[in-house]
Design goal:
This protein is α/β, with parallel strands linked by helices. It has eleven helices and twelve strands. The chain has a seven-stranded parallel sheet, sandwiched between helices. A three-stranded mixed sheet has the order 7-9-11. A two-stranded parallel sheet has the order 8-12. About 1% of the residues have low confidence.
Length: 358
């Protein structure tokens, strides 16, 4: 029996990696990719699967209820995986209403249309369906660097500090409310910082790689001591698949890499990789400390024990291995990077000048 996935935001960084993962590892499936193709959505990410008969792309905004209803009625969707979101923290500070529209109203629209499609007149849901909301550790707020044993668990109170994080927390609460009110079948996953192929150079790691390739200054917010838990995107995709296939409905699962590092240490590791392994003439002298952004969280740290113990998932790619693979990918795809930088320059408020979000 064919399983049909509706992946929203599937032309973005994590969404496109997830679609590739599905089509590479599963046979009897169908994947419907719904994306509005804003500056962050790029069909180049999916060039290798666009001719796969199991794959279909639909250009639509998740806020467009009519368009989403047509997709839900036109295909028998089993799993709806919602990656679609505005995710650049700096832009959320400048344009919070855009984030409310996409992240809150868009999620509410998906929930309502999925409920209508999956529920019968008696209020029962078709067997096996699930709405998976892909969220972020940023909804929890910040941790103290002085208490390294303290980590975000699934029961940590939500305390978002940016408009982006607040809209993601709001979306999560809507999903939970649908579960409590309508017995709606859902899961929520909250991941740590992702990195890997197809990530726009508005984020820390691809931005630093791009600047190293160009010999440009490497902008680091403040003292660079902000701590993030890094997760290779392929590991994240595997975790989402585990939750869909094995997770208990109505549960939240934190997905972390157990890879806490300061932003500055990540930047210096990228410099070393270019200098020592690849022979590029870059040095720490390129690091430029710039004014920190408002409300910048000091530390994120995920406790992934629940997904590890319940579902047997653990990250397979170490940070050192994943970072080298990521650098290799960007070096091998100069045209993709050139196109991505062009979209950022032409996108909302020239995002290339307002990077990096970490």
């Amino acid at each position: 029996m064919t399983t049909t996935y509706l992946v929203t935001g599937g032309a973005g960084f994590i969404g496109s990696n997830f679609i590739q993962y599905l089509l590479e590892t599963k046979e009897d499936i169908r994947v419907i990719n719904v994306d509005a193709l804003t500056y962050a959505g790029n069909l180049e990410n999916l060039g290798q699967v666009e001719s796969d008969p199991r794959y279909r792309f639909v250009k639509a905004n998740i806020c467009d209820a009519s368009a989403i209803e047509q997709v839900m009625s036109g295909f028998q969707i089993d799993y709806l995986v919602n990656f679609a979101a505005e995710s650049h923290v700096n832009r959320s500070i400048a344009e919070p209403i855009t984030f409310v529209d996409s992240n809150v109203v868009g999620t509410a629209t998906l929930l309502q249309t999925a409920k209508a499609a999956w529920q019968d007149e008696a209020g029962n849901y078709r067997e096996g369906v699930c709405f998976l909301q892909v969220s972020t550790d940023e909804v929890y707020g910040t941790l103290s660097p002085q208490r390294p044993a303290e980590l975000f668990s699934e029961t940590t109170p939500l305390s978002p500090h940016s408009p982006y994080a607040a809209t993601k927390a709001s979306a999560d609460l809507l999903v939970r409310a649908f579960g409590d009110t309508y017995r709606f079948p859902y899961n929520i996953t909250r991941c740590s910082n992702n990195y890997g192929p197809y990530q726009l150079p508005e984020k820390l790691i691809p931005l630093m790689i791009s600047h190293c390739l160009e010999g440009r200054q490497l902008p680091v917010y403040g003292d660079g001591r902000q701590i993030r838990d890094w997760l290779y995107v392929r590991d994240h995709c595997i975790a989402i698949d585990c939750v869909l296939e094995q997770g208990r409905r109505g549960e939240i699962y934190n997905i972390g890499g157990r890879n806490e590092r300061t932003n500055l240490s990540v930047v210096k590791q990228i410099i070393r990789a270019f200098r020592d392994r690849l022979g590029f003439a870059v040095s720490d002298d390129l690091i430029e400390h710039v004014q920190d952004r408002p409300g910048h969280d000091v530390r994120y740290g995920i406790d992934p024990r629940k997904i590890e113990l319940e579902l047997g998932w653990r990250p397979r790619i170490s940070f050192d291995e994943g970072l080298e693979a990521t650098i290799d990918w960007y070096i091998a795809h100069p045209l993709w990077l050139e196109h991505a930088e062009s979209r950022l320059e032409q996108g909302p408020r020239g995002m290339k000048e307002a990077s990096h979000s970490a």
